[in-house]
Specification:
290 residues, alpha+beta, Arc Repressor Mutant, subunit A, Beta-Lactamase, 2 domains, three-stranded antiparallel β-sheet, 12 strands, globular, disordered N terminus
Length: 290
C-alpha cells in the first residue's frame, strides 16, 4: 500500500494516509481520550522520555521516536525549553536544569531517605565498602543512594538513578522476596548479566525462599564479575492506622567476591534496624491532611 501523505491531523499524531485509508499511529503504551488524542501531559512525557533515553535529540529525532506530528513536537519543545525542562544547544535538545533541580531535591527531601541516610553512612564507615540503597521498579532496581567509593569503589560502576535487573543483584533479590510469587513470575524471562546469574524460574524461587529465611540476600558475582554483595530489604513507615503507607527499599554492602565475609551481615542488619527505627512513622499518614 503506497504512502501518499503525512501530516498533523490536529490531534498531535503523525497522520499517515494510504491510498485507501487514513491510519492514525498513536504512541504505544499511552492511553487516548474519547476523541482519540493523547493528553498534553502524555505528550510532554513522551518527549522527556525520548530525550532521556537518547541523551540528546533534534526535532526530527523527537518526531521519529515519539510519533508526534512535527508541528506539535516543535511547539512542545519550545515550551519545555522556555520552562527549563529542556536545554537547547544548536538544533539539539537535552534534559534541562529544572529537571536536575527537582530530581536532586526529590531524592534528598524524601522522608524515608532522610531517615535512612545516617545509617547508610554508619554502615559505610564500619565496613569501608560501597553501600547502596535502591527501590524496585518493575523488573529492575533503581539506585537511590550510593556511598563510597572507599575500598573497591572503581570496580562498582553503579550510579544514583541507574538501574540493574533485580534478579541479578542482592538488592533486587531482597526486594523480590517480599513480592508474591505470581509477580516474580511475570517478570520472566530472566536474562544473565554474568555466567553466575540465576535465570531459571525454579532456581530463582528457591533463592528467594532462602532470602526470606535468612533475612538477607547474597549476590556472588551475579550482577558484576568479581563483585559480591549482601543486601536486605527495609520496610518502614508503618503505624497503627489502617491507612498506613509503607516505604520499601533495600540496602546493600558490596565487596570483592573473593572477600565476602559473613561478618559483614551483622552491620548490614544493624543498619536495617536503625532505618526502621528512624523512619518508623510516615509523615504522610499523620493527622492534619485532607
Amino acid at each position: 500500500m503506497a504512502l501518499t501523505s503525512e501530516g498533523d491531523g490536529g490531534d498531535g499524531y503523525n497522520r499517515r494516509r494510504t491510498d485507501s485509508e487514513q491510519e492514525w499511529r498513536p504512541a504505544v503504551g499511552y492511553r487516548k481520550d474519547e476523541a482519540g488524542s493523547l493528553s498534553m501531559l502524555d505528550r510532554l512525557d513522551l518527549i522527556l522520555d525520548a530525550v532521556e533515553d537518547a541523551g540528546f535529540l533534534t526535532l526530527s529525532g523527537v518526531v521519529e521516536r515519539t510519533g508526534l506530528a512535527r508541528s506539535t513536537a516543535h511547539r512542545l519543545l519550545t515550551h519545555l525549553e522556555r520552562k527549563r525542562w529542556l536545554f537547547r544547544v544548536g538544533s539539539n535538545y537535552e534534559l534541562g536544569p529544572r529537571l536536575f533541580d527537582l530530581g536532586t531535591k526529590g531524592v534528598r527531601n524524601h522522608w524515608f531517605y532522610r531517615g535512612a541516610l545516617p545509617a547508610l553512612h554508619r554502615l559505610h564507615a564500619q565496613t569501608g565498602f560501597i553501600v547502596h540503597m535502591a527501590f524496585l521498579d518493575g523488573p529492575e532496581v533503581v539506585y537511590w543512594e550510593k556511598i563510597g567509593p572507599g575500598r573497591f569503589g572503581a570496580a562498582v560502576p553503579t550510579r544514583i538513578g541507574g538501574r540493574n535487573p533485580a534478579h541479578s543483584t542482592s538488592l533486587g533479590k531482597a526486594l523480590l522476596a517480599m513480592q508474591p510469587a505470581g509477580l516474580v513470575d511475570s517478570l520472566a524471562p530472566f536474562t544473565p548479566a554474568t555466567e553466575r546469574t540465576i535465570c531459571g524460574a525454579a532456581a530463582l524461587h528457591q533463592e528467594l525462599d532462602q532470602v526470606r529465611r535468612r533475612g538477607y540476600a547474597v549476590d556472588r558475582g551475579e550482577s558484576l564479575r568479581g563483585v559480591g554483595c549482601f543486601g536486605t530489604a527495609v520496610q518502614a513507615g508503618a503505624d497503627d492506622s489502617v491507612d498506613a503507607y509503607r516505604m520499601t527499599a533495600a540496602v546493600s554492602v558490596c565487596v570483592p567476591v573473593d572477600r565476602m565475609d559473613s561478618r559483614l551481615i551483622a552491620p548490614l542488619l544493624s543498619a536495617k534496624k536503625q532505618i526502621i527505627d528512624a523512619a518508623r512513622i510516615n509523615p504522610m499518614t499523620e493527622p492534619g491532611g485532607e
